[in-house]
Amino acid sequence: MTGSLVPGSFVTVGGHATWHAEYGSGEPLVYLHGGFSSSREFVPVRQAYAERFHVFTPDRRGHGRTPDVPGPFSYEVYARDAVAFLEEVVGGPAHLVGYSDGAITALLAGLARPDLVRRMVLISGQFHQSGLLPAFFHGPDAVTELRATPLAAWYAEESPDGGEHFPVVAAKIIESALTGPTLTAEQLAGVPARTLVMSGDDDAVALEHTVEMYRSLPEAELAVVPGTSHLLCMEKPALVTQLVLDFLTRDPVPTIMPIRRA
């Protein structure tokens, strides 16, 4: 296996241009980035993943190098794009590792098309919008406040739409987060993939919600990373990567004193 870089390129997915890159070889793994971000967030750890997997890193519509498209964002739209990427670019089932909005996208894709998902890792995601703590966004001036953060500068560095388009995309991202997802705990029983649910212990997603998601998924395991926030992948990247790779590359160990799994 190699960790060499395959230059990024545009592909047509679901009828619109999507930028992606590929690294390494082995079983396919698709990394789904968070909101207000892009696949650049994966750069610090991609070598560790590429030593084990053929990694695909698409930039979601309106994020990174992928241009915006008319209309609102929604997690259902994100999931349809992810399914189309699996079908049209990967060409079959893959492991899905999703962070924040990417975790919600992976969950919806795993529910809609379980045949395309091997194992899933859901990092700091939620199955219902009520699981997101109210303090995560800062009221009606959230878009204005975000324009003064590094997020706007990073967007301007990558987006083919230019930095002046950031307020449009930011408003669409916030709207999608405040109105979705809207799954019920009962619906999660329809996800057959073995799944690792992960969060920080001081996450923007309520810990109680994360535990409910873990308990509702039939083949789930839970990891709460101590001393971290919603940015756990940046705060403790080595530990998060170790937990994810261990989950993806090893079979479950026999539980000696099972309770939930009895």
Topology:
Layout: E1 5-13, E2 16-23, E3 27-32, H1 46-50, E4 53-58, H2 75-90, E5 94-99, H3 101-112, E6 117-123, H4 142-146, H5 150-158, H6 166-179, E7 194-200, H7 207-216, E8 220-225, H8 232-235, H9 237-249
Parallel strand pairs: 3-4, 3-5, 5-6, 6-7, 7-8
Antiparallel strand pairs: 1-2, 2-4
Helix pairs in contact: 2-3
Question: What does this entry look like structurally?
Answer:
- The chain is α/β, with parallel strands linked by helices.
- Helix 2 crosses helix 3.
- It is globular, with a radius of gyration of 17 Å.
Helix/strand structural class: alpha/beta
**Strand portion, in percent?**
15-25%
The SSE order reads EEEHEHEHEHHHEHEHH
Helix content: 25-40%
Largest beta-sheet details: 8 strands, mixed
Search tags:
262 residues; alpha/beta; eight-stranded mixed β-sheet; disordered N terminus
In brief, what are we looking at here?
This protein is of the alpha/beta class and 262 residues long. It has helices at residues 46-50, 75-90, 101-112, 142-146, 150-158, 166-179, 207-216, 232-235, 237-249; strands at residues 5-13, 16-23, 27-32, 53-58, 94-99, 117-123, 194-200, 220-225.
